[in-house]
Structures are given as C-alpha cells and as structure tokens.
Amino acid sequence: MNFHTAPQTFVQQVHLIVKDLDRSLSFYDDILGFSILNRKDNKVELTLDGTSTILTIEQPQNAQPKQPRTAGLYHFALLVPTRKELAKVLRHLLNIGYPLQGASDHLVSEALYLADPDGNGIEIYRDRDSGDWQWNNGQVVMTTEPLDAEGLLAESMGMVFEGLPPETIMGHLHLHVSHLEEAEAFYCKGLGFEVVQRLGNQALFISTGKYHHHLGLNIWNGKGAPAPASNAVGIDEFLVVYPTNEARKEAVIRLETLGFVSTQTETDFYLTDPSGTKMKLAVEYQ
C-alpha cells in the first residue's frame, strides 16, 4: 500500500534554516546525493528525482545556531524504496566515516540516524511490508531494537552508493512540541491525523490510512519548550498534502473552530501550530 499518495494526507516537503548555505549544500550534495532544482539568493530547493522538491534549505540574515531545549525539528525522515538502498547508505556512511547518531530496528522499519552540519536531525529508513506490521488495540507495535547492521550490509556487498535513489520521499516528520495535549488537538482534531501509537504522556505517533506514522510529536525537550528564534537553525516550515481541496477545506474549518487562524493565498493555506512551527496545506502539491 502506498501511504504517501491520495487518499492519504501526508508530509511531502521540509524547509530548513541553516547557518552556512554552502556548507549545507556540500553535505546534501556530496554526502547524500541531492541536486539543486531551484536557487534564489539565500534559498535552495533540493531534489532527488530531478523534478520535485523534497527539501529546501535557507540561510537567513544573521542566522543563529540551533537553540537547545526548544520546540521544532527533532528529525525529518527520508524513506528509501528498498532494504538494499538502505544498505548502500549504511555502507557509504561507514566508508566515508560520517558519524551516525543511531541505527535501529523499529519492527515496522529499519532506520539510520545522523545530522547535517548544523545539527538538523535526519532519519533515513526503509519500511517493512505493511502486511507484517502488528497492531494491538488500534496501536501499531513499534519498538527500538539494535539494527542488524551486518545483515543489512550484506545486502549491499560490492555495490557503490551513487546518492539516494530518485524514488526516495519524505516519509515522515518528527517534531518537538511544547504541550502534547495541545499538539494532539491541533494535528488530530484539526488537521485530521489519527493517533497510531501513544508513548505515555511523552510522545504521539500519528498518521492517516494506518501508516505507522506521518508525524511524530514529543515533549522530550521539556514541557512548555519555547519556539526557537525565527532565524535559528531548525525547521522553518513543512508541507502537508491533502488528497482533495474539499478535505483541506474541512481541515481548515475544524482548525478555525478550535481557534487557529490560517492565511490563504491563491493555492495554499498557511498555519502555525501551538508550538510555533509553521506549515503549508496544499492539494496534490509537486
């Protein structure tokens, strides 16, 4: 099942703030294999398939380093199409000595964790077949176990990494939030996602279509964590894609009922979540 096309609602793009644009371009190009789709002044749209933006990086004036203990980006997650492609990424990162922050088996997926030069968190992962996912009382069974690195590397024996494959997509986004209850109301009652796993009062994983998660929300930076400065390293905005204009309008009406105000252009709606993270709501946006 494809969890990142209609009729699902999902995250398609992430816009990051970086401190040094050239340094970041070198990382995303040389290390991961992105290429420039569009560039204007201090903002660059990056692509993997040559036609669609998956990541935007921007260096604002007087850019500030990543601010600790704030709301915003925990990590964005790039979903590769096969285990073999994930194996090639692992072998590549080990060969060049790029530091990994983690490598985990989540039962529904296998994942590698790293960060860009500014400390923006990145997950690169592959999904197991959704028919093999386990569900218990409406919650997907996910855990964090050590990755079988040797078994994974065996998948890429003799292969050369030539960049993330063009089929790679933005699989999910994980955010630090200020208050979990407020975030749940905004993202579930408002945007229309459903809780598929709840980690006590610390984190929520939410999705549409019974994906293991399109969004993760946590208070691991502290309850009441403030929003970072607008020019600080982290997430500037992300894109939520709805299957139809009607579905998007219904979400906007629900959010307005909850007291959230949106702004509208000819094609898109813009909102800010209760923790200060901005998003754009689009329909089949490319």
TrEMBL record:
The keyword Oxidoreductase applies. The lineage of its organism: Bacteria, Bacillati, Bacillota, Bacilli, Bacillales. It comes from Fictibacillus solisalsi. This is Catechol 2,3-dioxygenase. PANTHER family: CATECHOL-2,3-DIOXYGENASE. Keywords: Dioxygenase, Metal-binding, Oxidoreductase. Residues 10-127, 169-284 form the VOC domain. SUPFAM superfamilies: Glyoxalase/Bleomycin resistance protein/Dihydroxybiphenyl dioxygenase. CDD domains: VOC_BsCatE_like_C. One of its GO terms (molecular function) is lactoylglutathione lyase activity. It comes from the Bacteria.
